[in-house]
Amino acid sequence: MTTRPVSDDEDKLVGKQLGAYKISRLLATGGMARIYEGVDTNLGRPVAVKVLKLEDASADPTLARRFQREAKAIAKLEHDHIISVYHYGEDGGLRYLVMKLIDGKDLSQEISRLRRSGRKMDVGYALDILGQIASAIDFAHEHDVVHRDIKPSNILIDRHGHAVLTDFGLVLQHTFDSTQTQGTAFGTPRYIAPEQALASQNAVAQSDIYALAVILYEILTGEAPFSGDTAMEIALGHIGDPPRPPRTLNPKIPVGVEKELLKALEKEPARRHSTAQSFIASVRTAYEREAPDAIKGMRTTTHQPSHPTPVFAKAPKLTAEPVLEAWDIEDGSTSRLLPQVEAKKKQRGVAPWLIALAGGLALFLIWIAVSWISNPTPNRITLWYDDQSMVMYNGYGSDFNTFKWQFIRGVDGEGNDDYSGDRVDDDLIPVGECYILRTFGYDLTLPGQCKGLHNYEELQNPLRFFWRNEPVNAATFDIYYDRQLIAQCPTVHEGEQQTCTFTEPVLTPTPAV
User: Fold this and answer.
1) Taking 70 as the threshold, does the pLDDT of residue 504 lie above it?
2) Closest Cα to residue 101, out of 188, 10, 40?
3) Highest mean pLDDT among 58-62, 232-236, 285-289, 395-399
4) In angstroms, rounded to a whole number, what is the distance separating the alpha carbons of residues 195 and 347?
5) CA 74 – CA 99 distance, rounded (Å)
6) Distance CA 175, CA 248 (A)
7) Fewer beta carbons within 10 Å, N or C terminal of the chain?
């Protein structure tokens, strides 16, 4: 999700029509596009309509080419586990892509739902879902297409357990000129392969397999193989650090499964599995040999590659001194980084200037009415909110890093009301400054306590605000830091106002499971 304000042209699309497609509601917003639910007025079927952001396309002409490349890439990949594309068109200066509407949820929501209840995903189910996606990945690779952004939120699961790979916005086709992304890292830091973290044109088929392995590692252990306080810190972990052995986090993982995970997470692409399906099959075989009860009832995938998946381009040796000129955090929001990062020599904590500049996130939020805002408490984060807006005020004595924060309203069973710090553009809220979150068009004045406005976000539907009681009838919303609950705040009904404060967390280590 992007936190940049969107234009009137895009927010007024609901109820309008693009070509033969009438837009009914906003589903999601990403770095370069917004996704709407709509209906094909000719055929009467529901569709998903992905619309390129008008102001982004005007500012960066390469986005339009990427968007069209995505449409062409999906159109040539007719596969049961790859999202179906129906149409690509332009209307009133807007470029749009019409796809099949999946009635379900994404894998990220399912992982989040289980994590909140202290559970892990059933291993058989996880391998079933990832096996389906592995068949899609291999099929794409057979057609010289590297996805470059394999992650849980790009895996959709319908109500029958059918998984579909989506969001080919960062696709790299080796039939195209791959130099267009040279010197730039595009992808999602949590799941990015080392060679891709150095520069996006380095991505190869095994880069997608690496990302798939990170997802399985996270499902089996409850943790990511690399962690950090910023996007750059995580990326540097992928480049230069060995992954934590998964059995140190979950001793129930069979030895053979750990071996296959670590193989798929090798720094050198050529040392990884040759195909995504062979990776999942190797993990499944290890479970069958060492822990067969863990995968009872698991289905198997149907697609087999017609030939071994090649490494499309020779990846660079990681002993080189890479240049990271830019970082695309979530499909398009770019933060400039300093060049000449020494990957192999990198150690955590030795580059605070990288941390300060990393593009990652920050937690939002927003002003209600000056008349009812109380004086903020020193050395606390203060939230002021009503039914239309929220302000987050940094009252600490230092910049406030929001990377590991998560806000959850009640428990809706699907994880749809989560709002986490890794969805926003900047890691740090400076001392005395504020973030705001508000419904689109809601007129606000910055509170006098705020020295400045660091950033803000506008949303279409206030019922998605985590601080509102509606629609799940939750009396409170929870505030987590690094997956540990540190505060609870009351929700508001329509017309109500509230203030909530909390101090910087003092955390205990998360025990191994």
Assistant:
1) no
2) 40
3) 285-289
4) 18
5) 10
6) 42
7) C
What is the bridge-based pairing of β-strands 185-186 and 326-328?
parallel
- In the set 138, 149, 229, 387, the catalytic residue is 149
For residues 17 and 47, the answer to whether their CB atoms sit within 8 Å is: no
| Tens-place pLDDT, residues 440-496 | 667 777 777 888 887 777 766 676 788 888 877 888 888 888 777 888 899 998 888
Query: Chain centroid to CA 12: how far?
Result: 26
Amino acid at 392: M
DSSP 8-class letter at 507: P
Domains of the chain, start order: 8-100 (3.30.200.20), 105-357 (1.10.510.10), 370-502 (no CATH)
Q: Are 69 and 176 in contact (CB under 8 A)?
A: yes
301 in Cβ contact with 281 (< 8 Å): no
The runs of H, that is alpha helices, within 450-489 are: none
Amino acid identity, position 301 = T
- For tokens 């080392």, name the residue: 194
Active-site annotation holds for 149: yes
Give one DSSP letter per residue of 377-427, joined into a string. Answer: PTTSEEEEEESSEEEEEE-SSS-EE-TTEEEEES--SS-TT-EEGGGSSBS
Closest CA to 203 of 176, 234, 163: 176
